[in-house]
Amino acid sequence: MLSPLMGPEVTLPPGAKETCKLKYDRSSEQKRLHHCSKCGNTFTRVDNLKRHQKYVCGMPPQFQCILCSYATKHKYVLAVHMKSRHPDVIVVDNKWHAGLKGHSEDWNDEK
Questions:
Q1: Domain residues of the chain, as ranges?
Q2: How do residues 64-73 score in pLDDT, each as one tens digit?
């Protein structure tokens, strides 16, 4: 028999062992939601709401793709975009460089 926190009773396949994994009870979490007054997004932590209000909500995208018109409010989303849409681009010193993938010589050394 599984814990009541696990949800509905689950029938295990023959030979499977019951493990002691408890699901997180989210019923108390719903009582502690913090709502953004501008857009309605909800956050479980007030610091996440404050960061959202300061850097994201109502602000224009600040991270622009150097190769196309794509822009986003989150740096990591731009990194995912660059890797999926422009795979021939690499990062050098935290800057995106087009057409350098596979470059064999050290282009930083002066000759």
A1: 28-59, 63-98
A2: 998 899 999 9
